[in-house]
Amino acid sequence: MAATAAETRIFLEVRRQLQSALLILGKLLRVLPLPSENWEALVGEWCCHPDPFANKPLHPQENDCFIGDSFFLVNLRTSLWQPRPELSPVEMCCVSSDNHCKLEPKANTKVICKRCKVMLGETMSSETTKFYMTEIIIQSSERSFPIIPRSRFVQSVITQCLVQLSSARSTFRFRIQGQDDKVYILLWLLNSDSLVIESLRNSKYIKKFPLLEDTLKADSSSAWSAIKVLYQPCIKSRNERLVSLWESDISVHPLTLPSATCLELLLILSRSNANLPSSLRHMNSFQVAFLKM
Question: Given 3-state DSSP classes, what are the helix, strand and coil percentages for the chain, each rounded to the nearest 5?
Answer without folding.
Answer: 30, 30, 40
